[in-house]
Design brief:
By secondary structure, the chain is an alpha/beta fold. It folds into 2 domains: about 190 residues, Rossmann fold, CATH 3.40.50.720; about 120 residues, 2-Layer Sandwich (Dihydrodipicolinate Reductase, domain 2). It is about 30% helix and about 20% strand. The protein contains 12 helices and 13 strands. It has an 8-stranded mixed sheet with strand order 4-3-2-1-5-6-7-13. Strands 9-10-8-11-12 form a 5-stranded mixed sheet, covered by helices on one side. Strand 1, helix 1 and strand 2 form a beta-alpha-beta unit. Helix 1 packs across helix 12 and helix 7 crosses helix 11. The protein binds nicotinamide-adenine-dinucleotide. Nicotinamide-adenine-dinucleotide binds next to helix 1, helix 3 and helix 8.
């Protein structure tokens, strides 16, 4: 495959690591990156090391007012010598998008339709290329599906839910399901230890709180940093999530693997330790063609970080999507559709 140029929308806890991981993937050249306040574009390739060191401890994150780590004169990406301050960061990247093969969207999801609306802006500007997101919520997939025809007409290949879960683990479930002719149940159970990484990932932690039964995304968006800290303290820094609205369910259903209602997602987040509180595991239970019932299990090593498990797969799916886009395949794809079919 020829070289792929790509942009990252949102250089918070995830997006900064996207840039870093891309240095280790063949043929990927980051040419644009933005956060809320700044944009960096260089069609010959961004200097990722400079950009990361300029933004170290200085992320324009959505983790709440005082969690926005903005030091010095310039905020976030704008602190890089390659960047400029802007009030219209996404539009600035869209203006350059004729020369960008793929866009990885690592923006927050405090409004369910935010990412679909960002996609609309690319469509309106006549973009034809790849869009990839790492969103979590099941309901957003439907909003993207509604845009399938528009994406097809525009020449856009959109891969949705391409982070860790959904994303990596959805793909693992799709592979594990191949032993079976009938899948009864998919159980996804994740563990994240986020002590030293907590500052960088406040945005994700805030969004996760919206998955607790007592809260929703409006609460998570409006809560003060102190209120978020109180929730974490109430759980002694270790929060267990059950029956999460994670799009693994609808993504496995749209790939024909099982019904969405047969998929459960839960996990444990520990902000007091870098050790994972539990091993991330995918269990797929089904029946083989010759009548045997079994459970295939996929586990992540406890030493692999959340950032590694989001960004490696997200960039891997991005490369698969570019291949499809160049072959003229457009529309909306979930991670399971980029793997062996059921
Ligand atoms: N699928 C998964 O496995 C998985 C795992 C972790 C995180 N995520 C998702 O990744 C997303 C990013 O998480 P994070 O921890 O990096 O969040 P974050 O708050 O640290 O970063 C968000 C970034 O987006 C930028 N941003 C926000 N609004 C913007 C706008 N209007 N224009 C331009 N830039 C804007 C912010 O400045 C920041 O750089 C979240 O939605 C989270 O749910 C998914």
């Amino acid at each position: 495959m020829n070289d792929v140029t790509f942009a990252v929308l949102g250089t918070g806890g995830i997006g900064r690591r996207t840039l870093e991981v891309s240095k280790h993937k063949d043929g990927l050249t980051p040419v644009a990156a933005c956060d809320r306040h700044g944009v960096a574009v260089d069609h010959d390739g961004l200097d990722v090391d400079e950009l990361l060191s300029a933004t170290e401890g200085n992320i324009a994150s959505d983790g709440g007012a005082s969690a926005v780590k903005e030091t010095g004169e310039m905020k976030g990406v704008a602190a890089s010598t390659q960047a400029v301050s802007t009030d219209t960061p996404i539009d600035d990247i869209i203006a350059e998008s004729d020369d960008i093969d793929a866009v990885l969207i690592a923006l927050p999801n405090f409004e369910h339709d935010f990412i679909p609306r960002v996609a609309d802006r690319f469509v309106d500007a006549g973009y034809s290329g790849v869009l990839v997101d790492v969103l979590k919520r099941s309901r957003v997939i439907g909003m993207l599906d509604e845009r399938t025809e528009t994406f097809e007409e525009s020449g856009i290949t959109f891969v949705c839910g391409a982070g860790a879960t959904p994303g990596f683990l959805t793909g693992a479930a799709a592979l594990a399901a191949q032993s079976f002719v009938e899948v009864d149940e998919v159980e996804i159970w994740w563990g994240v230890g986020l002590k030293s990484g907590y500052e960088d990932n406040r945005g994700t932690v805030r969004e996760d709180i919206a998955h607790l039964p007592e809260y929703d995304i409006n609460d998570a968006r409006e809560m003060s940093d102190e209120e978020i800290a109180e929730v974490i303290d109430e759980h002694d820094g270790v929060i267990e999530f059950n029956d999460m609205e994670h799009a693994d369910d609808v993504l496995l259903e749209r790939a024909g693997i099982c019904d969405a209602e047969d998929v459960t997602v839960g996990g444990i987040l520990d902000v007091t330790s870098d050790e994972k509180p539990t091993t991330t595991t995918v269990r797929v239970t089904g029946t083989t063609f010759d009548g045997e019932r079994g459970t295939n299990t996929f586990q992540l090593d406890d030493n692999t970080s959340m950032e590694a498990n989001v960004n490696g797969p997200a960039l891997g799916y991005l490369k698969s999507a570019v291949r499809r886009n160049r072959a003229g395949e457009y529309g909306v794809f979930g991670p399971a559709e980029l793997l062996p079919q059921f």
